[in-house]
């Protein structure tokens, strides 16, 4: 119940948030927020209209709001509990439950959040009478949340709402009242301190939206963090990640890496959240078992954190120095970013990866995973989309492959399985492996040897060829009004555009001959020329043997016009 | 003479047939199967080659003939009807093929003359008798 109302007001609040000064207390932010979206304020039962405006603005505002909202929400919450509540009640009774959640800002799916909120709402609802209003809100808020979660797993919207929603005090009161939130709230003091720092760091990456491909890393880290996730359920996605990292590390792993990793993760989580709001929800559901009901709301947020931190935790165990994990974390985010760009930068990546593969022991697995991902991206874009949601689930099932490579190797594909092999085996995932390439060359010339660069280029050419042919063949199949790619599509394209005859796959189809289209006028002229040539030939042969051809041609040309006018026999 | 250059293509749909569309959709398989088996054996293959191999070679042959006829038709349409010279023109750049074609055509002419002479002889013998 509390969750739905808070998301809506938060969404609306987000819009004005960027406009509002960062230092403004929640009250002022609230007033502007309700104004843009009057629907939620007067009618908690009208969440749909509210959700509509917030989602579009949620993305841009979410990134900006969270950093601004948290510092604002924390201090004002303590000093202005009653006024926000009063305002919220008449304007947005739904928002009252929000304040308790503001603190913990889990970036997570609103449904979970909303489910969790009602449980915690009762204690906080005492402060505000929005409990009743919150009831109708739950349904719309999850939808709104999911809509807003596009960019940041929905949490920023929450966070933005809560501070504006005005009841920072209510949060604290609810904190004490609801044991469920105990864990989340404990880290609050730390988070408030770090929030400003984290926000500053997180903002830029979030706005850049370059970490779209970071879902994979997020998934890996989320699993590690059951404790950390539960901590700050209501906090913003970005901040909670950093926060979750810090408290979780202190609590669970006790390593200092996570705060750094959390900061780094924040942006990635935000981006990943935007991409996979749905998968996050799935993650949340999967992690629900791990976390207690109170922390269920944090799941969406926690997952990315856990996923991200998981490889790091593994790395930490393997590599005590935190600096190493640090570097690894950075590459992970970079790798994720590059995953998105793989299709455009395949060449660069391949070249970079190959020299790196030999350098590191874990490279074979990573490269293979990278190749798997590349292949999946190459061959099937829909598969790629499926991959992304699957990646968050990957860590739950697999393997610890810490991204040791600094370059764009993706070390955490969820779907791929670790196959240790030489570079030939890795390239086997590609269309043309190095080994098969060498075999082909040996068929041409047994003593021929290719340079590594040449092999790379040939592999790349092969991949591009297959991709282009498959793409065009699919468009041909589509033109054929068929959903199945058949051999004749590929045959037609390759035969027409590549001038390659492939016997044996033609089936029972006969090539139709298109008779050359000739104009009637053209035929007439040709007939006239023939006649004139024949006539001149008969007459000119006995007379002009040497100049026959020239005379005939000239006469034929000269006679071309007259015959048209006066037909010659 | 016209048949020497192009081994009659029974696979092609009969022009003028009402079932041209149906015939064009399906191409008869195994049109040259028996002859091709012997030819493949003559070129070094097993006396009984695999059916898949024979069908593949037949696909290659049919595709080659089809392509040649289409090109010849394009050339001959300017002149009128299709002649043997059109096919010779198409293989002009391939000396072995061109020589083989001309050899086959000349042999065909000789055989025709021989048959004619044989018939004449038969007649003279018959008349003589």
From TrEMBL, chain A:
Compositional bias per record (Polar residues), positions renumbered to this chain: 168-185, 192-204, 232-259, 288-299
Protein's UniProt keywords contain DNA repair: no
InterPro entries: Histone-fold (IPR009072), TAF12 (IPR037794), TFIID_TAF12_dom (IPR003228)
Major location (coarse): nucleus
Low complexity bias: start-end ranges: 10-24, 59-77, 86-95, 118-146, 266-287, 315-367, 540-563
Record key words, sorted: Nucleus, Transcription, Transcription regulation
Biased composition (Pro residues): 25-58, 96-110
Gene3D superfamilies, sorted: Histone, subunit A
Domain (Transcription initiation factor TFIID subunit): residue spans on this chain: 433-500
Stretch list, region Disordered: 1-204, 220-367, 535-569
Record protein name field: Transcription initiation factor TFIID subunit 12 domain-containing protein
Organism encoding this protein: Musa acuminata subsp. malaccensis
Automatic annotation (TrEMBL), chain B:
GO cellular component terms listed in the entry, alphabetical order: nucleus
Pfam families xrefs: TFIID-18kDa
Matches recorded under InterPro entries: Histone-fold (IPR009072), TFIID_TAF13 (IPR003195)
GO-annotated molecular function: protein heterodimerization activity
A biological-process GO annotation: transcription by RNA polymerase II
The organism's place on the tree of life at top rank: Eukaryota
Stretches for region Disordered: 1-26
Transmembrane segments: none
Gene3D superfamilies assigned to the protein according to its UniProt record, in alphabetical order: Histone, subunit A (1.10.20.10)
Keywords: Nucleus, Transcription, Transcription regulation
Location within or outside the cell: Nucleus
Entry similarity comment: Belongs to the TAF13 family.
PANTHER family, per database record: TRANSCRIPTION INITIATION FACTOR TFIID SUBUNIT 13 (PTHR11380:SF5), TRANSCRIPTION INITIATION FACTOR TFIID/SUPT3-RELATED (PTHR11380)
The name this protein goes by in its record: Transcription initiation factor TFIID subunit 13
Species name: Ensete ventricosum (Abyssinian banana)
């Amino acid at each position: 119940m509390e969750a739905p109302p808070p998301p809506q007001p938060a969404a609306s609040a987000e819009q004005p948030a960027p406009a509002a000064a960062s230092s403004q207390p929640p009250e002022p932010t609230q007033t502007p927020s309700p104004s843009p979206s009057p629907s939620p304020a007067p009618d908690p039962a009208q969440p749909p209209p509210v959700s509509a405006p917030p989602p579009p603005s949620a993305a841009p505002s979410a990134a900006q709001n969270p950093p601004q909202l948290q510092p604002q929400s924390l201090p004002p919450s303590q000093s202005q509990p009653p006024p926000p509540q009063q305002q919220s009640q008449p304007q947005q009774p739904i928002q009252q439950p929000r304040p308790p959640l503001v603190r913990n800002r889990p970036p997570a799916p609103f449904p979970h959040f909303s489910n969790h909120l009602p449980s915690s709402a009762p204690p906080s609802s005492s402060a505000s009478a929005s409990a009743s209003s919150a009831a109708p809100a739950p349904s719309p808020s999850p939808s709104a949340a999911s809509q807003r979660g596009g960019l940041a797993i929905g949490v920023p919207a929450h966070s933005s709402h809560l501070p504006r929603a005005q009841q920072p005090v209510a949060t604290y009161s609810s904190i004490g009242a609801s044991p469920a939130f105990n864990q989340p709230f404990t880290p609050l003091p730390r988070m408030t301190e770090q929030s400003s720092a984290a926000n500053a760091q997180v903002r830029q990456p979030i706005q850049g939206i370059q970490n779209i491909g970071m879902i994979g890393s997020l998934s890996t880290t989320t699993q590690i963090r059951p404790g950390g996730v539960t901590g700050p359920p209501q906090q913003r996605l970005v901040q909670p990640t950093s926060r979750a990292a810090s408290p979780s590390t202190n609590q669970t792993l006790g390593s200092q890496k996570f705060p750094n990793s959390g900061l780094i993760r924040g942006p990635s989580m935000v981006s990943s959240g935007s991409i996979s709001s749905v998968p996050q929800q799935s993650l949340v559901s999967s992690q629900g078992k791990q976390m207690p009901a109170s922390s269920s709301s944090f799941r969406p947020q926690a997952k990315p954190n856990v996923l991200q931190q998981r490889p790091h935790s593994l790395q930490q165990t393997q590599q005590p120095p935190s600096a190493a994990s640090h570097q690894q974390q950075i590459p992970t985010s970079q790798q994720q970013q590059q995953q998105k760009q793989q299709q455009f930068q395949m060449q660069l990546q391949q070249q970079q990866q190959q020299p790196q593969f030999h350098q590191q022991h874990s490279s074979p697995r990573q490269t293979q995973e990278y190749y798997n991902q590349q292949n999946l991206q190459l061959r099937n874009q829909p598969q790629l989309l499926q991959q992304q949601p699957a990646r968050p689930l990957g860590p739950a099932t697999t393997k610890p492959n810490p991204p040791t490579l600094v370059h764009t190797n993706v070390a955490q594909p969820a779907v791929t399985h670790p196959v240790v092999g030489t570079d030939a085996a890795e390239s086997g995932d590609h269309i043309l492996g190095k080994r098969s390439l060498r075999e082909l060359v040996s068929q041409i010339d047994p003593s021929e040897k290719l340079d590594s660069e040449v092999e790379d280029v040939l592999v790349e050419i092969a991949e591009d060829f297959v991709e282009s042919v498959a793409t065009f063949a699919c468009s041909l199949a589509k033109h054929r009004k068929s959903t199945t790619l058949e051999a004749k599509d590929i045959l037609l394209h390759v035969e027409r555009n590549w001038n390659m005859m492939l016997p044996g796959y033609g089936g029972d189809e006969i090539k139709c001959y298109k008779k050359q289209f000739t104009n009637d006028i053209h035929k007439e002229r040709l007939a006239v020329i023939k006649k004139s040539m024949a006539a001149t030939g008969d007459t000119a042969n006995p007379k002009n043997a040497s100049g026959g051809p020239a005379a005939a041609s000239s006469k034929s040309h000269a006679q071309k016009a007259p015959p048209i006018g006066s037909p010659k026999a | 003479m016209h048949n020497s250059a192009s081994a009659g293509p029974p696979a092609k749909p009969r022009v003028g047939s009402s079932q041209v569309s149906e015939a064009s959709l399906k191409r008869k398989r195994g049109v040259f199967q028996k002859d091709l088996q012997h030819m493949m054996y003559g070129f070094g293959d097993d006396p009984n080659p695999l059916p898949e191999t024979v069908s593949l070679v037949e696909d290659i042959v049919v595709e080659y003939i089809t392509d040649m006829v289409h090109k010849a038709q394009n050339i001959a349409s300017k002149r009128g009807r299709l002649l043997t010279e059109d096919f010779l023109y198409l293989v002009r750049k391939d000396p072995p093929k061109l020589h083989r074609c001309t050899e086959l055509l000349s042999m065909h002419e000789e055989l025709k003359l021989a048959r004619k002479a044989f018939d004449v002889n038969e007649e003279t013998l018959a008349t003589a008798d």
